[in-house]
Amino acid sequence: MKKLGATLLTLASFLAFSSTASADSFRFQSTLSGAQEVPEVITDTTGDIRAQFDDALSAAQFRLSVRRGMDITAAHFHCGRPGENGPIVAFLFGPVPGGVDVNGELAKGTLTNANIGPVDCTTAIGRPVNNIASLAFAMAAGLIYANVHSVAHPGGVIRGQMLEE
Question: 2 in helix, strand or coil?
């Protein structure tokens, strides 16, 4: 009887969480700047990104804008805590050898499981990120950042930690 009670309690907890964890709770944004790069980059380039996951946590739509961007070569989501660099999880833009100048929308699209990794994020953030669902949960924990790279700053010209809206 104790086993049945424990099972019912676990099920009730799962259902309570599931009912509050809709796609509305998996909307993220970030303001990107050179000050958030590691090491810091002095630049006039800025940006912002939004990401929204579907109810099944099988796809994520994103929109990335960059202002005063010169010779932009690539953009990615990375695993990493604030102030720490980490590996690429998903490509958002590029690579474009030689880069492009941009003052507005740089990229938008939909990420699926096929766009994630393969990468080992365990060393950087203590957990794997190997599909869209794990990307959403890592973002919710503040463990994913967006990074925009340029010819002048191949390690990144602007960066921002993904935060819940």
Answer: helix
Tally of CB atoms within 10 A around 153? 18
Residue pair 63/108 in contact by the 8 Å Cβ criterion: yes
Tell me the per-residue pLDDT of 147-158, one tens digit each, with 9 for 90 and over.
999 999 999 999
Distance of alpha carbon 50 from the chain centroid:
9
- What mean pLDDT value characterizes the chain? 88
In one-letter notation, the amino acid at residue 109 is: G
For residues 135-151, one letter each, b for 16 or more C-beta atoms within 10 angstroms of the residue's C-beta and e for the rest, the string is bbbbbbeebbbbbbbbe
128, burial (CB in 10 Å: exposed 0-12, middle 13-18, buried 19+): middle
Domain ranges of the chain: 23-164
- From CA 133, how far away is CA 67, in angstroms rounded? 30
The closest of 55, 126, 53 to 90, measured between CA atoms, is 53
The sign one gets for the Cα dihedral 143, 162, 137, 61 is negative
1 pLDDT more than 50: no
